[in-house]
Write a structure and sequence with these properties.
This protein is α+β, with helices and mostly antiparallel strands. It contains nine helices and 14 strands. It folds into three domains: 70 residues, no CATH class; 165 residues, no CATH class; 105 residues, no CATH class. The strands form four sheets. Strands 1, 2, 4, 6, 7 and 8 form a six-stranded antiparallel sheet that branches. A four-stranded mixed sheet has the order 11-10-9-12, covered by helices on one side. A two-stranded antiparallel ribbon has the order 3-5.
Length: 403
């Protein structure tokens, strides 16, 4: 998924500079007619890059605009995502609009969150539920029979565009979906994580894709569609995720829902970690203390949360709270909790809501170090060193990896 910040070295190539220039020009436009001019130029450049699989240029332009002009970054990111997750095709003398959608399930557990192939009965139930609760009456659907983890999702705009094109043809024509699903990457075991079902929804051009777009009396508001979706799918999802607590989000556009699910799983990761420590070590949340610090090379890319047994300096567990493209923290506000929307305030609120009262915040930016031996992230202690999280020797030997 092209939602994490990139560190591209191709920042000064002519193609990068042209993308950046067009994005800045569009962001500065003062009229719709000028908007359309710059949008056409930017779209044309991006489409060429997507078709040639030149993701490096897109990533470098995103990285540069993020650093120098956040409004232009939003413009460029929106345009790249739109072209990756949607397109228009002609079929049987009819134009069709197609949108790649993600159906997120945000889950947490003390065990393991499954992923992998969907049983045919679940795939059929899900397709029917989409048509009943989500899709407009004239829309068509192609659904991948796979429960995706983050590790298995497309990791770039170019990969996403390829998937959109494959699903688009299957949705419009009603043909069998031909995707190679056997060589999926391994899923990293964590206590809280989103799972996704991916589909494409297609409708005749300039007609509704979703129930909430149609005219009355068939119109159905998003909240009503979500409630109906959750009711229709709860039994099937429960069978897919035994031993898990979960929440189903509204099926929506791919990139928007990937970001939403990733953000919603972050406080669940904290709660799941505290539940795990309580059940494994027999320590109540009030018996834990936490150290929180921002990590990144030039800017904060994530916060790392170290868990200690109160009264001990040893880090026994760690959780990562990633920041995404549209989140930023200035270096002089890394531990500022006065802003309700700041990441550090949300982290502290999540910890206190889960019962952890002792929270120490560092004000400096740490290097995002990993363990040389095992590759696990290192976590901050109170004196400002980064250390390996180690469970006590008498703890059970099988533990989930860090989130």
């Amino acid at each position: 998924m092209a939602i994490h910040r990139s560190k591209s070295s191709q920042r000064n190539s002519p193609e990068v500079e042209r993308l950046v220039s067009d994005a800045i020009s569009l962001a500065a436009s003062g009229s719709q007619i000028e908007d359309r001019f710059w949008e056409k130029r930017l779209t044309s450049r991006l489409l060429r890059l997507l078709k040639s699989q030149n993701q490096n240029v897109i990533d470098a332009a995103l990285d540069q605009t993020f650093r120098i002009n956040t409004v232009a970054f939003e413009v460029l990111a929106d345009c790249a995502e739109t072209l990756a997750e949607s397109l228009t095709l002609d079929f049987d003398a009819q134009g069709w609009d197609i949108l790649l959608i993600a159906m997120p399930i945000v889950a947490h557990t003390r065990y393991q969150i499954p992923s992998g192939p969907l049983p045919p009965v679940v795939t059929e139930t899900m397709a029917l539920a989409v048509r009943t609760a989500i899709a407009a009456p004239d829309a068509r659907l192609a659904l991948i029979p796979w429960l995706y983890s983050i590790d298995q999702m497309p990791h770039s705009h170019c990969q996403t565009r390829i998937l959109t094109e494959a699903l688009a043809n299957a949705a419009i024509s009603g043909s069998d979906l031909k995707l190679e699903l056997r060589d999926m990457s391994e899923t990293i075991a964590v206590l809280a994580d989103p799972r996704f079902i991916i589909a494409a929804i297609a409708a005749p051009s300039e007609t509704p894709l979703f129930r909430w777009q149609v005219e009355s009396p068939l119109r159905q508001e998003r909240g009503v569609s979500l409630a109906e979706w959750q009711i229709l799918m709860r039994e099937s999802v429960s069978s897919l995720l035994p031993g898990c607590e979960f929440e189903m989000l509204l099926p929506e556009a791919y990139f928007t829902n990937c970001r939403l699910a990733d953000k919603q799983v972050r406080p669940l990761s904290i709660r799941a970690a505290i539940n795990f420590l309580e059940s494994t070590l027999g320590i109540l949340p009030a018996g834990l203390s936490c150290v929180v610090a921002a990590f990144g090379e030039e800017q904060a890319d994530e916060y790392r949360i170290a868990f200690n047994i109160k009264g001990s300096s040893e880090v026994v567990y760690g959780v990562i709270w990633p920041l995404y493209d549209r989140e930023s923290v200035s270096t002089d506000a890394l531990n500022d909790i006065s802003d309700d929307e700041s990441p550090i305030k949300k982290i502290c609120d999540a910890l206190r809501d889960a019962g952890v009262e002792d929270v120490f915040r560092h004000a400096m930016l740490f290097d995002p170090e990993l363990c040389d031996d095992c590759g696990a992230p290192l976590f901050p202690d109170r004196i400002g060193e980064t250390v390996h999280a180690e469970m006590p020797e008498d703890a059970p030997s099988q533990q989930p990896l860090f989130h």
